[in-house]
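note to self: dont lose this again. the chain is below, predicted strucutre after it. 170 aa total, dont forget to put it in the shared folder this time
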Amino acid sequence: MKQAPQSAVHLPSATVRDAEGRLVSLAIEYGLSANATGDNTWLVAIDGSDYGQNAVTEALRLARTMKDCTLHLVNVQHWMSKEAAESVLLAQGLAATKKALALLGQAGVPSCLHVVMGDAAESIAALAEQLGCHGIVIGSRGLGAAENLLLGSVAQQVIHSSRIAVLVVR
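---
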């Protein structure tokens, strides 16, 4: 299935606002509905790092081997003011996922990008549950034991807070 290049400018197809009217979540469809689900629906956490890009590469490999695999990308941003959210949430999300979207676009794989504000692990696990995902693909920085004990990692927190399969990619 051929689709429009994922690097083309797209506008959010869905937005969520909090009680104060602050933009807290948006979705941009690249050939896939923001609410698309299925038996092989995977959520790929992407933060713009090489580790996140490794997760996208692995998710693409999975998509090629599974029938009717659906890929949703999620980029989680730190909390920001109402004004900042309106002006930079979309831009920061697109900047962090530019390489990932280009890779999926070149492969002709439909996807949907979700950009949300909040705690990364909580937001990833909650979105995966909301979408009815089969699993989550996430990159890992490969922290040492001492760093992991002191800092923890988003991947480790997702593993503990999620009720579905989590594939950690290095």
